[in-house]
Amino acid sequence: MPRGKIRVLVVDDSLFFRSMLVKGLSAADGIEVVGEAFDPYDARDRLLGLEPDIMTLDIEMPNMNGVEFLKILLPQWNIPVVVISSRGDLADAAKRAGAADFFQKPDANSKSAVANFLKDLPDRVRAAARKSKTASALPAETAGSASCVVALGASTGGTQATARIVQALPADFPGMVVVQHMPPDFTKMYATNLDRDCRMRVAEARDGDKIEHGKVLIAPGGDSHLEVQRRADGNFVRLARGEKVNGHCPSVDTLFYSAAKYLPGKNTVGVILTGMGADGARGLMAMRNAGSYTVGQDEKSSVVYGMPREAFEMGAVTRQAPLEAIAELLIRYVKNLK
Questions:
Q1: What is d(CA 220, CA 185) in angstroms, rounded to the nearest whole number?
Q2: pLDDT in tens, 285-298
Q3: Could you give the residue numbers annotated as active site?
Q4: What pLDDT, on a 0 to 100 scale, did the predictor assign at position 144?
């Protein structure tokens, strides 16, 4: 949160109402309107460029409604949103999607209704901003970033792709668990080489290893699947012998399904990279349905656009990005959890 004025982005497809909001908020003490947007896609671009502290959002807009935008936006960008709409029947849906507040639009033909609305609006924005500031001021353990876990899966071309991501991450980044389709004995050497080249510590996973900040655990190739589990004293990995899943052991799907089951919610991130076939796609869908943020590598930067394509086409991917942008995407997401 800012130390000075509260920076607001106003999103509404109605030029008339958008202008009303801008004028009303701009006249209020301690509030600055830094931008306007006419639909969710325009809002996304404005968010990236302006980095406002809070956003007002309409529901009924072209291209995508406000509730759907909230579901996509908030896992990526931890920003308080005040939904302002004439659709009072969608207030509960907006709050379930993560809105900090819902404010009913006034009857534009009633001067008194508009005046009362504009009088109350700045206080609603300030209240939502204060609530966000309190949450962000909590210790990391309380805010949730200390328990954040990133689960990553890859196959063909993935050794280089995973290395590029991990090499770009800071030493104190949240714990990562990686399933890379690779023959036995190669995973230990791969982990050793990554450990030498990265700021995070990297090791081949052993059964019972704790998932810790600043450490990457690589699933050993062979006849055991790797799962994540939550215990009272932290998050751990479990190695269990099993049949191949999607033709692979360890399987990315097995990792992702365990993350969806044992580590549901926004503090868990799923990443699917280049690879042949569909391993990981359904597991990533389970993670997204459990509230996790999910990232898929795009076609242009993939050696084989198989696994990420399957995940993207079934709707399992919250954000698709080129390989070179994924590390920064993860850093930004984790930062916004604090």
A1: 8
A2: 999 999 999 999 99
A3: 155, 181, 279
A4: 47
Integer-rounded Cα Rg, in Å, for the chain is 22
Q: Is the pTM of this model over 0.85?
A: no
The tens digit of pLDDT for each residue in 37-78 reads 999 888 988 887 788 999 999 999 988 889 988 887 766 666
Give per-residue burial for 206-223: e unless 16+ CB within 10 Å, then b: eeebebbbebbbbbbbee
Handedness of CA 241, 152, 212, 230 (dihedral sign): negative
162-195: per-residue pLDDT in tens?
A: 999 999 999 989 999 999 999 888 999 999 999 9
Average pLDDT, the chain: 90
Rounded distance, CA 41 to CA 125, Å?
Answer: 22
Instruction: Count how many residues are written for the chain.
Output: 338
The end-to-end CA distance of the chain, in Å, is 12
Is residue 198 a contact partner of residue 166, using CB atoms and an 8 Å limit?
A: yes
- Taking residues 223-251, report their average pLDDT: 92
CB 16 within 8 A of CB 23: no
Longest dimension (CA), the chain: 75
Distances in whole angstroms, Cα of residue 188 to Cα of each of 81, 99, 160, 202, 323: 46, 45, 15, 10, 24
DSSP summary character for residue 322: -
Return the pLDDT at 2. 40
CA dist 192 and 187 (Å) reads 9
Joined tokens for residue 221: 């190739």
Alpha carbon distance 153, 275 (integer Å): 9
Give yes or no for a contact between 35 and 9, defined as CB atoms under 8 angstroms apart: yes
CB 321 within 8 A of CB 327: no
Query: Which tokens sit at 67?
Result: 């509730």
Per-residue pLDDT tens for 128-140? 887 665 444 434 3
To 10 degrees, the CA torsion angle through 61, 67, 71, 72? 0
Secondary structure class of 11 (helix, strand, coil): strand
Report how far apart, in Å, the C-alpha atoms of 52 and of each of 28, 146, 174, 337 are. 17, 25, 26, 16
